[in-house]
Description:
The chain is of the alpha+beta class. Helices cover about 35% and strands about 25% of the residues.
Amino acid sequence: MQKVRGLVQKGAKAVEDLNLLKLLQSEIQHELSSDPFPKSRSISLGDFVLEWDSPQTQDVFLRRKMECGEEVAVSAKLAPLSDTPGREKLMYPRDVMMKICVKKPGLSSILQFDCEVWENDGLGSGFEISEIYLFPSPARIGPNVYRGRPSYYLGIDTHPELDKYLAAKGIGEELTNFLLHHLHKKEQDQYVNWLQKLESFVAKEAKPEW
């Protein structure tokens, strides 16, 4: 009887695993067949080069070297989910946190702009500068480095000039469209990859050992 009880328990677990397996396969099929983020807007890297885009991380890193010798670097990742009213009507459920670093030739200092990229409903995308920092050297940039207070406090009147400054560096709507689209697709691909790994594990567990 003990052996029979053990077989029944294994059989019941196999049925549960089989149901879970079917759910996983259905979800994978749904994700692969759907396209929640179609390229319906103008998307371009411009003169930027995508230098870092690991499937295992959430961020991307782009760099551009201008003819004048200036270097412009952009790092970006998805912002946390927001419960802003009307958000469910947008194509992209999350904003993008973007950092822009500008380094002039012959100088060690770096100017950093902390920005938020957001979707315009039916009108592409835009971004807003939240803070600006001036670092004396690249060694002072990093998550564990105390940045102090922002070097500049932004008023409404300063935004048009700052937008023009960044536009001249290649930061425009086509780039922010790219970041919104690429990072959401990257997250979706990572989700599908996780589902497929879980499916493989459950499939092995669902095979009863008689």
